[in-house]
Write a structure and sequence with these properties.
Elements: E1 5-9, H1 17-25, E2 28-31, E3 45-50, E4 53-58, H2 78-91, H3 97-110, H4 116-131, E5 137-140, H5 150-160, E6 165-168, H6 178-183, E7 187-190, H7 212-219
Parallel strand pairs: 1-2, 1-6, 2-5, 6-7
Antiparallel strand pairs: 3-4
């Protein structure tokens, strides 16, 4: 019987390729948005390249830190057209842009979004399934019984989800207690982001830490090779 692989992360706005690498690594990916919203983080912003220079795409959500991610609303709708036009200006001349243009036009120009997490999850799930052919199942942390706070709650979530293997980004080494996972019978795997191959970007110096959209618009249907396919 194969081991069930699980990952748990907060939803981010058009996240970088490493985020999707973790999604591809697991059987179940759990969005963990009933936790504290953090300002100046990846929840409501990410980087793209415009004429070879990194530019932030930021969704205005207010400055309050006293709310959960699931409670963050987007009051000002003007960002949608601005983000779409910026993406088109940055990548519209690339052949692969046409593969995804209808989807992103619908997201930014035709849909209305109230909650940040709903937009983030919609984008992440569709990019994973429709553009990167991931078979991973998605779930919400609120669907599972949990207890405790911080590390203890995260471990209880992994247990409730039936994880045999828990895949985590390396940043979580700051708070995850590895011995607790071993005692719980869960194998803890730290994701290694090293070795991603470069591709032809518009800038002089290659930047890995940009939104997945940069890779999609440059490489189209070959994008998954530059995330995990190169390892196979």
């Amino acid at each position: 019987m194969e081991k069930k692989r699980v990952a748990v992360l907060q939803s981010n706005y058009i996240p970088w390729k490493g985020y999707f690498d973790i999604i591809h690594d697991v059987d179940l990916f759990i969005f963990y948005d009933d936790v504290q919203y953090t300002k100046n983080d990846w929840r409501n912003r990410n980087k793209i390249l415009v004429q070879g220079k990194p530019v932030w795409l930021t969704i205005p959500v207010g400055a309050s830190e006293h709310r959960l991610i699931i409670d963050v609303q987007m009051q000002d709708k003007s960002w949608q057209e601005k983000h779409y036009l910026t993406l088109k200006m940055a990548y519209g001349k690339l052949p692969a842009f046409k593969l995804y243009e209808d989807f992103f036009y619908n997201v930014y120009m035709e849909k209305e979004w109230q909650y940040l997490y709903e937009l983030n999850r919609y984008l992440i799930e569709h990019i994973s399934r429709d553009f990167l052919s991931c078979k991973t199942k998605f779930a919400d942390s609120r669907d599972f019984p949990t207890h405790g706070v911080k590390h203890e709650r995260l471990l209880s979530l992994a247990q409730a989800a039936g994880a045999d293997v828990y895949v985590s980004g390396p940043a979580a080494k700051d708070y995850i207690v590895a011995d607790d996972y071993e005692r719980a019978g869960i194998e803890l795997v730290w994701k290694d982001y090293a070795g991603y191959p470069s591709y032809s970007q518009s800038g002089d110096d290659f930047l890995h830490e940009v939104s997945i959209l940069d890779l999609l618009f440059h490489k189209g249907k070959e994008a998954s090779h530059y995330i995990w396919g190169w390892r196979e």
